[in-house]
Amino acid sequence: MSDKAERHHAIRDIVTAHVVASQEELRKHLARRGWVVTQSTLSRDLRELRLARIPDGQGHVRYAFPEQNGGDMARLERMLPELLVGVEGVQVLVVARTMKSGAQPVAEALDQLEWPDVAGTIAGDDTVLIICRSPEGRERVLRKLRAYIP
Question: Alpha helix (H) ranges present in the chain?
């Protein structure tokens, strides 16, 4: 088994056995197992493993594999009301505000949902920039997202 495959196996074990809320937490778990990794390597590993940060139902966000949480689009759509707090549109852009640390899972959900009006997303900590294909598409995206805001 290659180093990368062994590291991926270790990440799977850690995320399955522990509640891991951040890359830094995961990096520390890996270090305890003898894996010293950079942030960029860990980010790449998380992307390759398709790990997503999801709400755990108790107000916290944690890393999980899609198959641990149903793995379906309905699960992603149920997550949006838990994390979204506001949206606004500017030209062909939508700015979505989330709870702290909620931007990554929201962006991941939007990417997974593959809405035809969305060209892509960029996530920070509590803000997602959604790039729409047209001003009309922006309006459709705003309507959909507003429906998820309690």
Answer: 3-17, 23-32, 39-49, 73-83, 103-113, 135-148
The structure tokens listed for 33 are: 């197992």
Tens digit of pLDDT for each residue in 92-146? Answer: 999 999 988 888 888 887 887 778 999 999 999 899 999 999 999 999 999 999 9
Give residue limits of the domains in the chain: 3-69, 73-148
Q: Please list, residue by residue across 80-118, b when 16 or more beta carbons sit within 10 angstroms of its beta carbon and e when fewer do.
A: bebbbeebebeebebebbbbebbbbbbbbbbebeebebb
Determine the pLDDT at residue 138.
96
**36-39-45 Cα angle (round to 5):** 85
Fold entry, domain 3-69: Arc Repressor Mutant, subunit A (1.10.10)
Q: Tell me the two tokens of residue 99.
A: 């709870």
| DSSP three-state, residue 68 | helix
